Amino acid sequence: MEFGIVELSRLQFAATALFHFLFVPLTIGLSVIIAIMETVYVMTDRPIWRQMTKFWGSLFGINFALGVATGITMEFQFGMNWAYYSHYVGDIFGAPLAMEGMMAFFMEATFVGLWFFGWERLSARAHLIVAWLVAIATNFSALWILIANGWMQYPVGAEFNPLTMRMELVSFAEVMFNPVAQAKFVHTASAGYVVASVFVLGVSCWYLLKDRHVELARRSIAVASAFGLASALSVVVLGDESGYDAGQNQKMKMAAIEAMWKTEPAPASFTLFGLPDREARETHYAIHIPYVMGLIGTRSLDKEIPGFDELEKDSEARIRNGLVAYDLLTKIQDSKAGEADPARIAAFHQHSADLGYALLLKRYVEDPRQASEAQILQAANDTIPTVWPVFWAFRIMVGLGMAFILTMAFFFWRASFRQMDFPRWSLWLGVVIIPAPWIAAEMGWIVAEYGRQPWTVAGVLPTALSVSQLGFGEVALTLAGFCLFYATLFVIEIRLMAKYIRKGPQDDLALTEAWMAEHRAHLSASAPTGRM
Q: What parts of the sequence cross the membrane (predicted)?
């Protein structure tokens, strides 16, 4: 197997996944913001809120359609570039994907259609129910995808069958309630809410700078800042939960996040800044904050956090134990069909949890049992991911998260206690930061996925064994095709979004203007109430 094929296949999947994730968080967040706005409309019967709901809904529709297109093409790669992965763990990975299609995506697509075409056909309350069903289905769809991904990060509820040579599902409940998957879902959903909040805030700030659609923009800022502040704070809280889960179940990833070369005694400190050096196995110019990592990774001040030195030794021990499992597996496969020794199978299951570690040796030798001591040590070293991308992606994500909290808090304060008086510099800030939450979201995916290497399924299936038997040229050609296709979709997305944002709201204009005129007359005839 050419190692270049593995890297090229990884690059293709990373490119398509990261591009697809440009659409996902905005869809997740906008679906909830739109439902909130429509709720206000149904409660108050004020046309301005109906107009807001329809306007932001049109942008949601554009993003939703293109997100579906990118997601479908991404899934083709499981069978195209990752055939052995699909064969080896398809029974487990395919289950939540099937549930997502049947229970979430079909529901989402159905209610999206009802929402767009049901304004004049459904009662206000029925249409509001549809809006919330769209939001629920959108988030439910993300749940099933992240259950599948969470299983790859922390495989539970499955075991290897030595007769079929595949992983098989033994407990769907364990897969569904996987702690890593649940933490990933709530953290990712909250991040999506922040993305949508910053988007709505930024577009609304642009309208105020241009002195257009002022009433829509002011109210949209009020909703986005309140919802965004709550979401940004929840990202921090739920991110702490993800950090704790990583400290318990993904220790190598935790060490990569911290560039923790040696086991950190309690209470472990957090590295605010540094330059990780894998060759020297140290972090140059490190600036530490005492106690913080101990609280994140162990929720205590008296537990150490293992570093690469200890984890690498543990990997070596698991490789050696996995070799016992591999030897027993080979003998089971060599026996005649139906005559496998039950005692040998029982012995295999005693060591099978480490079989994946023995498979790491296949990168260096066809039969892992023939591996030299040097190759075993090298395979143990391979379990350490490339540190600097994970280290810096995490810090960029956290730094941007803090910036979102401050930004949303400022706009919430001005909207709630300063009668919507926003300084011009703050409006420019709102416009400038529009891309920032996407950067933070992409950094989060880099931490999650890059930090899992060298595994496709952690501890079970190495990435180097997961790929299809394709030629370098075939993968390069499809990579170029996907990049061209996605670049085209990206241009379409930007042009459509910009077009509809420039046009502004187009529905209920006369009704809204009449109501606004009446509303202003009422306010001028009485003391300002600050009502919206």
A: 17-43, 55-72, 92-117, 129-152, 185-209, 221-239, 392-413, 425-447, 467-492
